[in-house]
Structures are given as C-alpha cells and as structure tokens.
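Complex record, two chains
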Amino acid sequence: MLTTRVIACFDVKAGRVTKARRFQDNIDVGDAAEVARRMYADGIDEVVFYDIAASPERRRADLETVRAVAENIFVPLTVGGGVRDLEDMHAVLGAGAEKISIDSMAVRDPSLVTAGSKEFGRQCMVLSMQVKRVERTGAIPSGYQVFIDGARVATGMDALEWACRGEALGAGEIVVNSIDRDGTHTGYDLEITHAVADAVRVPVIASGGAGTPEHVAQAFLAGASAAIVSSMLYSPRLERNYTVDDIKRALSDGHGLPVRPTAEAASTR
Amino acid sequence: MIDYRTGNAQSVLFALRHLGLDARLIATPQECADVDRYILPGVGAADVTMASLAERGWVEHLTTRVRAEGVPFLGVCVGLQVLFEHSDEGDAACLGWLPGEVVEFRRDRLRVPHMGWNAVVPRSDHPFARALPAAARFYFVNSYHALPSAEADVAGVTEYGVEFASVVARGNVMATQFHIEKSGPPGLALLSRFARLPAQELVPEVPAC
C-alpha cells in the first residue's frame, strides 16, 4: 500500500528560501540547499521548490540552486519556475530534478504539458494550479477559478475543468493550490481538493494553508495522495514550527493513515 | 552509469558520489574500458529506452560484458523492465535476459502512475536481496510492472492492487523497480550494497546458446 506523502515546499529567490503570505511580504528563511538538507535529514518524503524570480525575469530556474539542492537530498525533487520549452525541462532534469512543475506556462501553452509528458514520461510533469473560490457561473461551474502569474491574473478557466484537461494533456500529478488559504495556516481548501481528487485518476497534491498536522491529515481524508507543507516546518513568522515526525505521528497515530515512519526516513548525516 | 538523454542519471550519480563511490556518466560503449559495474537508470518509456540503447550500441556491449563476462549490473525503474523479454509499453521487444514480460497496472481500479513510497518485502536469498530490511519503504514511480516467469528471479515484492516484482536478481544481474537513488537512507544502503558486493558472490548464470 502506498503511504501518504508529505512534501516540503519552499520558494527560492537567488538561492535563498523566501516566505510570503498570500504571495506578498517576503522574508528570508535561509540558503536553499541548507533548508532542503535539513528537511531531508528530518525525514521528509519529497521536496519541491519554485524559483519565483524565474518567470518574471523570463529565464529558466536557476540551475546552480537545482544542483545544490539535488546533490544533498535523496528523495524526489520537483522544481518549478520559468519552464518555457523542452530544452528548459532537459536542463532542470539534467541538474538533478525528478519532476517539473508547470503552472502559468501550462495555461499559456498547454501543449508544453503534452510535449514534456511524451519526452520524459507523465510522471515528470506536475501540473500546478492556483485556484480561488468565486461565484458559480456557467463558465465556472465548480465555483473555483484558475489564476496565474503569482495569483494576480484571472484566466476565466474553471479549476475542475482545467484539472481534467491537464490530466488528458499528460500531467502525472496535479497540485491544487488554494490562493485563499495560502499563508493563512487555517487548513487546505478541502472542497476543491476533494473535487479534483474525485475527478482525475492521477495523484492529487493538496497545497496552501497547512498550519497544523491535523490540517495535513484532513487533506488525505479528502482524497489527496500528497500534501504540501511549508510555513509550519520552518517559518519564523509562526509561533510554533512542527517537525516531520510531528506530522507523521498525527497521520499515523491520530488517523491510522499509512506513513513512511521517521525511523526509516530520517538521516543522521 | 549509462547515460541516455531521457534517463535521470544525474540523480544516481549524486547518490553514488554521496556514498563515496567512484562513478561517472558514460554516453557510449567506447568509454567503458575501465568500467567494473554498470548501472542503467531510467525514467523513460520502455520502447524509447530500448531504441536509445540499440542506437548507441549498448545492447551488444552489455550483452557481452554483463551476460557473457559476468560484470555486475544494476537496472533501476525502466532499467528493470527492459531486462525482460517484452514490454506492453510501446509493444517493445526488450533485452530478454530474464524470462517474463512487463504489463500495465489496472487503470480502471488504481491511481496510475503508482507514485510514492511503498513497502518492499524481501523474497530471495540472493546476496543483493539480503541487504533489504524486513519491509522498508522505497520510492516508486511506475505505470507498468514486471511479471517474471521464473519465481527464483523475484528478490522482493510490493503490493499495489496486485503483488508485483519490485526487486529482481539473478547472479550478476540485479534491478529495482523503485528509484533506489531517491529512496532515502534504505535506498542509499542498497545502492552501496550493489556497489560493494564482491563480484565472486554474484555468480553469473551461463547464458543458454
């Protein structure tokens, strides 16, 4: 049986981890490779980072940072930011990433998802979507709309329809990131997480809003295969940070969810 | 480390270097003079992988070195699948070093790809499998899985809708369906085991002519 997956996520700018609240007010958290190494040593199941300066600066993710992170963690690494074509994907995977996360560019050029999936396999392509609760209309029947470019630009696309289309295009995983919950530490948006997990057959990753281990458990109970955590692990803004073990224990002891126990995951290095 | 463009050789290389092992990527058989262990990593499709291997002369080279001369070999992910006779992925004829075929998971019943951490239960007394902990979890990403016809080749099994062969081993030929290089400490331990097992413990099977 597959275990639940807890994924550490951080935003990177110039090799440093930075933490925003609802896409604004960034503060410095530390060197990206060092933060990743700490997560790995603590027994995290997977790591994802976004080079948040790449797209605005019209360049691919910083390969030096990808390499520095990849060299030190022996769990899967997903990198997002600035991917515009197959060559960008080759470069990022060649620097040591396992998967490419594609977000705004997938909306602009959906054929990228298909091209990447054909070249590297579906498992390499993670479709990440930023969703915001809106009024249900004919155009947005799910009541969730897709936004791009750091949650600033509305696309007019329905989140549920985009998820299904993303799967058909060749995405191997779908990240559902709630703009409303991002940085609030009040829990994931379980409604859209559940709706997407129900509608697609590929694994769905809940993102945005986790503040406690119990929130993480709720994502899995809503049907997610994996959950992204960030602030609760390392944000200096939070009164309390949790360890990976705190989260795993809540999942396992509190809810009987299958986990990869910290005892076999943690590294003493 | 056999490097063909769609593999994830870089990650395996990082892991080997972390373990203090002397490893490098090799693009063609001509660069293999001093090689005494081969790793075939992989994230691509079976048919694409076989085509890349054939195009660069790897099939002939590996058949000689691994099958005839008994050089230790480790396949990872699709590197396990191509050891069998045939894969349904792209209807590909594969290396055929091990009898059996590769089939797809039941998409109607399961989330596919099978992606994430799953337990491996050891199944043989092959020296490689003896390094497997009782039921540790390893990181998988696969839509297809092997069905070996020779039970003795199955060195570890995993459950995902069906029980499938997640580790295979016969003599000097070893392979894991999971990403050994991305499976945390248990994966690194197993990778180290492959690299450091004395070759004389890995008695190659004489290929039938």
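Note: The two ends of chain B are 28 Å apart (CA to CA).
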